Amino acid sequence: MKEYYRKYLENNCTEEEFQQFVELFVKPDKKLVLDAQMKEHWKLTKAQETETPDLTDTLHKIHYEINSQEPRTGKTRKLVTYLTRVAAVLFIPLAIAFFFTLDKTEIGTELQTVSTPLASKTYFVLPDGSEVWLNSGSTLSYPKKFDRKKRLVKLTGEAYFDVQKSKTPFEVETENVQVHVLGTAFNVMSYADTNPEVTLERGKVQLLSNSGAQQILEPGEQAVINSANSTIQVQKVDTEIYSSWIDNKLIFRDESLKDVVERLERWYNISIEIDDEYISDKKLTATIEYESITEVMDLLEITLSLKYEYDKNERKLIVKPIK
């Protein structure tokens, strides 16, 4: 295994070694070398009994470089855009490392837990073959082996599930609602301090809230659960808007600036403050894919007639109305 590849995985590489590692992902002529290095690392990971290195700090360093940049033009903007795309690519091996680390440390226990930091996401397969995409700032717990009565997973945050069909019911448990399915594809959003949402793409699911309220969803429907009284409201939606994040896209359709900012904070792991409540209800329609946070904020300025600035001391973006 090449030294710079090994050092990156150990979170111990120099700036020059990091650049060499990045080139494996961004230069087409390095594909064969990348494939060979990943295969070698895979074999070593399976063979060794030591813990897989925790790369959380490395990921945060990448996103710190992306998000701590002050809004500028020219070379700085190009660098931010470049780092954003590099981070998106690098998270593939990082996600694998997170999964292995958690898997190895949970041997002999009943549950396994996969967590994703902010500004990242991961994909993995459950013991029954069901696929899971876990969004930023989310956690999913599940048994190493499902029993015959039910396939239960516990979610905090947001996840998209493509459930393997089986006679054994599949259940997603969150703080406010339980989702019961047999075989389907759906998105569950249940972050703290938000009303949970369940969006069904195909199949059929049954919801049970903490108050005992029940609701069956059909494809193309979304249920919003009121966190205060556990009531369930159903509406027809474009499901792509709520599942596009698994394809590295954020889609906004006539959404308030307040809701947009909330999603951007998780997506980019950066603090954004709305300086004037008057502009919180301004509506945005846009699709974001690989843009840096600077490019997104520039878009908000143009489309919503706003302005923004970067607070060095607080390390946050402040959005203000144009007066």
From TrEMBL:
This is FecR family protein. Residues 113-206 form the FecR protein domain. Gene3D superfamilies: 2.60.120.1440, 3.55.50.30. One of its GO terms (molecular function) is sigma factor antagonist activity. Residues 249-316 form the Protein FecR C-terminal domain. Keywords: Membrane, Transmembrane, Transmembrane helix. Coiled coil: none annotated. The chain crosses the membrane at residues 82-102. It comes from Draconibacterium orientale. The keyword Transmembrane helix applies. The keyword Glycoprotein does not apply.
